[in-house]
């Protein structure tokens, strides 16, 4: 059998989306939050002499994201706290309170091993080996640190941290310090009958001690942490006028990009081909950046407006209910890709009179295939209500919560109840029991 191999030429036309560098940058710009975008524009201005950046005059304060449904905003809490670090605070106190002695040198040495939460991260034995100080001297140095502010600083573990805070609080319940010292594990494990019997007190007394300890801080040094990044610039604002919602774009928070026309015209008079090519490239960069930033704002506005339209009840009802909503719903409505919606909502915020919310927080899955109106948010809200209304002496189990929620029209599994309870930081029934 003869084998023949034939060759032929054919021409076919196909469409492909080429991921050019400009397209990749456009996608990245949409993904930037406001602060990242401002940094990006500033960097582009350094690269392009034809680009002038006019910094914005903010029409609203930097705001903290709000998850609660409180109606009043505390604008004082939105002012950044430019306080010193924990290390600087401790060093200042050491120099102010203690004389320049060898013991103070040991104190300063130990301060360097205190982490951002206020805990000592080196053992006294190891510190003694490295400094040449005796065990007694290192213990004295640690004692001096533990007398500084904030209360609890210099602790070597959580138990010691709580004891230090209790020791310096005159309003602490009777026996609170002793219970922490002698029966800390039993208190954590809620073996309260054993504690009550050991100290000859009632369960309500143990409950009082436990409630007090709950109000202490497990990380006393954290309040001295840096505040950068805690405040955000909202991209959108929702105003309510006579039950009508109006979505406004906060584009004034973005630097204005202008073209240096005078500089361009002066340089254009040059007959140097390389200069003219350089000017043309930089002019194109300016036009691309201005257009891309405008498109970013338009996309965020369109997506935000569609979200507000779907979640109208959230803004008008004080219970803040959320309807089931997915990225696909918005993408189909606006005829854009789901990934575009995702980039437009991540790290972008919406400001209201009752708080600031990330756009992606308005998406909520529906519960069950036959449910059109019940969302995961509704289930969490109902779960929280049931726990708040329960008899604290006989807390509801997850199974009982599942049954009660089903009776109220939200059918979810016990496992889902446990998952939502954890998400809401609600303890299990055994840990919610009170002895008041």
TrEMBL record:
Belongs to the sigma-54 factor family. GO terms for cellular component: DNA-directed RNA polymerase complex. Transmembrane segments: none annotated. GO terms for biological process: DNA-templated transcription initiation. It holds the Pfam family Sigma54_CBD. Residues 78-263 form the RNA polymerase sigma factor 54 core-binding domain. The keyword RNA-binding does not apply. Gene3D superfamilies: Homeodomain-like, RNA polymerase sigma-54 factor, core-binding domain. Keywords: DNA-binding, DNA-directed RNA polymerase, Nucleotidyltransferase, Sigma factor, Transcription, Transcription regulation, Transferase. One of its GO terms (molecular function) is sigma factor activity. InterPro entries: RNA_pol_sigma_54, RNA_pol_sigma_54_core-bd, RNA_pol_sigma_54_DNA-bd, RpoN_core-bd_sf. Residues 277-434 form the RNA polymerase sigma factor 54 DNA-binding domain. This is RNA polymerase sigma factor RpoN.
């Amino acid at each position: 059998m003869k084998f023949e191999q034939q060759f032929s030429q054919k021409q076919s036309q196909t469409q492909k989306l080429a991921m050019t560098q400009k397209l990749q940058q456009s996608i990245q710009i949409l993904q930037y939050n406001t602060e990242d975008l401002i940094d990006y524009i500033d960097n582009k201005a350094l690269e392009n002499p034809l680009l002038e950046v006019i910094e914005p005059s903010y029409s609203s304060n930097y705001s903290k994201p709000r998850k609660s449904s409180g109606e009043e905003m505390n604008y004082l809490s939105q002012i950044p706290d430019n306080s010193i670090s924990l290390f600087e605070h401790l060093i200042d106190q050491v120099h102010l309170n203690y004389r320049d002695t060898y013991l103070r040198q040991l104190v300063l040495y130990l301060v360097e091993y205190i982490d951002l939460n206020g805990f000592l991260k080196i053992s006294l034995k190891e510190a003694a080996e490295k400094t040449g100080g005796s065990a007694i001297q290192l213990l004295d140095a640690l004692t001096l640190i533990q007398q500084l502010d904030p209360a609890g600083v210099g602790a070597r573990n959580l138990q010691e941290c709580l004891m230090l805070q209790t020791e310096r609080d005159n309003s602490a319940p009777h026996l609170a310090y002793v219970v922490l010292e002698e029966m800390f594990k039993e208190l954590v494990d809620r073996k309260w009958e054993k504690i009550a019997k050991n100290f000859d007190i009632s369960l309500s007394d143990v409950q009082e001690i436990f409630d007090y300890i709950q109000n202490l801080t497990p990380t006393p040094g954290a309040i001295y942490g840096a505040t950068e990044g805690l405040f955000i610039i909202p991209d959108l604002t929702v105003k309510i006028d006579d039950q009508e919602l109006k979505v406004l774009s906060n584009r004034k928070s973005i630097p204005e990009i202008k073209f240096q026309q005078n500089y361009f015209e002066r340089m254009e008079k040059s007959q140097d081909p390389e200069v003219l090519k350089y000017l043309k490239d930089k002019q194109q960069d300016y036009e691309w950046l201005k257009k891309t930033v405008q498109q970013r704002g338009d996309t965020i506005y369109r997506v935000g407006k569609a979200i507000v339209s779907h979640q109208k009840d959230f803004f008008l009802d004080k219970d803040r209910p959320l309807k089931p909503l997915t990225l696909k719903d918005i993408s189909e409505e606006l005829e854009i890709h789901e990934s575009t919606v995702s980039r437009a909502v991540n790290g972008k915020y919406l400001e209201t009179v009752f708080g600031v919310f990330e756009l992606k927080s308005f998406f909520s899955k529906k519960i069950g295939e036959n449910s059109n109106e019940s969302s995961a948010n509704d289930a969490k809200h109902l779960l929280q209500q049931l726990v708040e209304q329960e008899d604290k002496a006989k807390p509801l189990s997850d199974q009982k919560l599942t049954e009660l929620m089903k009776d109220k029209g939200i059918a979810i599994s016990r496992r889902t109840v446990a998952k939502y309870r954890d998400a809401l930081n609600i303890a299990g029934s055994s840990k919610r029991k009170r002895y008041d």
